[in-house]
Amino acid sequence: MFSNDFFFIVDVDQSKVSLTTYDNRMNNLKQLRRSGLFDTNVPRYTSYPPANHFGAQDGRTHQSEWLSAVPDGSTVSLYIHIPFCKRLCWFCACRTQGTKSLRPVDAYVENLLEELRLVRSKMRPNIALTRLHLGGGTPTILSPQTMQRLLTRIFDAFDKADDFEFSVEIDPTEASDALLNMLAANGMNRASIGVQDFAPMVQEAIGRPQTFEQTAHVVNVLRGAGVKSLNMDLLYGLPHQTLPGLSDTLQQVLSLQPDRLALYGYAHVPWMSKRQVMIDADALPDGETRFALAALAHEVLVADGFEAIGIDHFARPGDTLAIAQSKGTLRRNFQGYTDDTSEVLIGLGASSISKFPQGYSQNAAATSAYVKHVLNGELAGMRGYKMTLQDSVTARMIETLMCQFTLDADALATQFPAADDLIRAKMKTIADRFPDHFDATPGRLIVKNASRPLVRIFAHGLDAFESPDKRHSSAI
Ligand SMILES: C[S@@+](CC[C@H](N)C(=O)[O-])C[C@H]1O[C@@H](n2cnc3c(N)ncnc32)[C@H](O)[C@@H]1O
Ligand code: SF4
Question: Based on the number of CB atoms within 10 Å of its own CB, is 26 exposed (0-12), middle (13-18) or buried (19 or more)?
Answer without folding.
Answer: middle
